[in-house]
């Protein structure tokens, strides 16, 4: 990929802001105060944790989707694809996927206290909901932390908003390394 191509990729990522998959104000107001609070955290987050770096969590109200983006030469393309799908509410689900596609590890429901997630499939293998499980959750304005859920060797996965400067730099580095 040329420098111009990298710049175009970064430009394409820039509009994928936290509000990209936010609930409408009508929907938030009709569900009461907890839904209104939930909508302030709607959006996409990217992992900065070693061993889970580049993975994505998408929050939409009380729903959360955890996405694995494979590393290597396709990371930039697949991250861009996943973020675009999140923005357009068109996340491709279906368990294990072929090369060239991100993988939805699990979907879940965030509790009203915003302290845990009930995952549909804690093993992340097929989204069947046959092996549900709970995981810890911590949300602040600049980071979410998911407790020991998908990575057996990682206790806490930290994710930052995709529109943050740190996330943009991380994604730019991935696109530059694999151009």
Report on this structure:
It is a single chain. This protein has 179 residues and is α+β, with helices and mostly antiparallel strands. The chain has five helices and eight strands, in the order αααβββαβββββα. Helices cover 28% and strands 26% of the residues. Strands 1-2-3-4-5-6-7-8 form an eight-stranded antiparallel barrel. The longest helix is centred in the middle third of the chain and has 13 residues, at 75-87. It is globular.
In short:
This protein has 5 helices and 8 strands, in the order H-H-H-E-E-E-H-E-E-E-E-E-H.
How would you sum up the major sheet?
8 strands, antiparallel, barrel
- What's the helix count? 5
Number of strands: 8
Secondary-structure element order, N to C: HHHEEEHEEEEEH
Q: Rg to the nearest angstrom?
A: 16 Å
Strand order in the sheet with the most strands: 1-2-3-4-5-6-7-8
Mean pLDDT: 74
Low-pLDDT segments, ≥5 res: 1-38
Oligomer: single chain
Key attributes of the depicted protein:
eight-stranded antiparallel barrel; 179 residues; 26% strand; single chain; 8 strands
Please write out the topology:
Layout: H1 3-13, H2 25-30, H3 33-39, E1 43-47, E2 56-60, E3 63-68, H4 75-87, E4 103-110, E5 116-119, E6 133-140, E7 143-147, E8 156-161, H5 165-177
Antiparallel strand pairs: 1-2, 1-8, 2-3, 3-4, 4-5, 5-6, 6-7, 7-8
Helix pairs in contact: 1-5, 4-5
């Amino acid at each position: 990929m040329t420098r111009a191509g990298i710049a175009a990729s970064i430009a394409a990522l820039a509009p994928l802001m936290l509000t990209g998959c936010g609930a409408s104000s009508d929907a938030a107001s009709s569900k009461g105060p907890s839904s209104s609070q939930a909508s302030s955290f709607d959006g996409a987050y990217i992992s900065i944790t070693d061993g889970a770096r580049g993975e994505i969590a998408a929050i939409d109200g009380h729903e959360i989707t955890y996405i694995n983006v494979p590393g290597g030469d396709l990371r930039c393309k697949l991250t861009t694809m996943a973020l675009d799908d999140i923005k357009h509410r068109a996340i491709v689900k279906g368990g294990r996927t072929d090369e060239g596609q991100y993988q939805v590890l699990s979907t879940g429901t965030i509790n009203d206290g915003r302290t845990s997630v009930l995952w549909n499939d804690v093993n992340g293998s097929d989204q069947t909901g046959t092996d549900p499980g709970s995981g810890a959750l911590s949300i602040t304005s600049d980071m979410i932390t998911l407790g020991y859920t998908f990575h057996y060797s990682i206790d806490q996965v930290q994710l930052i908003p995709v529109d943050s400067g740190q996330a943009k730099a991380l994604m730019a580095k991935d696109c530059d390394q694999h151009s």
